[in-house]
Write a structure and sequence with these properties.
- This protein has 362 residues and is an alpha+beta fold.
- It folds into two domains: 77 residues; 233 residues, Immunoglobulin-like.
- The strands form two sheets. Strands 1, 2, 3, 4, 5, 6, 7, 8, 9, 10, 11 and 14 form a twelve-stranded mixed beta sheet that branches. Strands 13-12-15-16 form a four-stranded antiparallel beta sheet, with no helix packed on it.
- Helix 1 packs antiparallel against helix 3.
Length: 362
Amino acid sequence: MGVVIFKLNWKNTLNAIFLMAHFFWLMEHLTKLSQNPIIMKSTKPYLPGTKQNSLMLLILIAFVGLHSCKSDKDREVDDPIQLQKDNVIQIVTENMDFQMPDTIPSGWNTFRYKNMSPQTHFFLVDKYPQGKTLEDVKTLVMPVFDNGMKLINEGKSEEGFAEFGKLPEWFSEVVFVGGSGLISPGNVGKTTIKLDPGYYIIECYVKMSNGVFHSSMGMAKELIVSDDVSDDSEPSADIKINISSTEGIVFNDSIQRGLQTFSVFYEDQITHENFVGHDINLARLSENADLEALDNWMNWSDPKGLIDPAPEGVTFLGGVNDMPTGSTGYFTVTLEPGNYVLISEVPNPSSKNMLKTFTVSE
């Protein structure tokens, strides 16, 4: 933060020097103009008064105009509010990163997540215990998951799951409070969740083709939710989804083409065999989509699960990530005619009624 402030102050100093130089240049040349009787005579009807008054007004107009244009240009570049438009928080991923504001308001927040990378991603918002930071995660959490996954990839599942027992005790206090569902390359997901003030970490733990988590490659970022309250409000849903460990994914509405907002209500939340809770991911299915392959792929703790590339014929469009019992999140998407699936990122989702297909007609 100190480096950023220094850069901005240094830039402002250079701008001031630049403007002052122009000011003196204008004074010198306008003074010469004021000594030209022909020019002063032609400007007299528009600049009444003495030569000195005319000269000073010309200088003032030129200087203010120059300063105003320069200041407006600077604001376009430096103003962090440019990252947030119409109360929507913009997130962009280009290469194992989250490009987004460091601080956002509390309350209802809508996130627009644009995946410009060649991999499938999501974002999950984790609320950490008091005093725990991203540095603690990098030193005490990520190595445990990396080592455990490495053993599982080597075929040593028992040793790999035993490695997860080395996680610090405080990790059990981390609360997953929502985020987007999976989003395929080149797509945009829009998710709305409600956040309390506090310290959060935003992450993606999809795996690279070599089995390394995206979070270990840079997709873990600090996020501060301030006491300032967002102007955003709770959306109105076109389609209502309930999800629970007992009933799975339940929705009764017929789903039409066009812009649709889904609500996702978490009747309960449990920790599944892969240490995470259930969630909702929406995907469009091509004719060659293999639902069995997709069913198997949704388990990150499987060596072939949640790994690049995603199953063929499946285009992920977002959703609502893991949330606590009683919470509601929203996601908005434009649906074209075709076949779709709502699926949860848990082991064997079809066996838990957490894989549901539907068709959008013409």
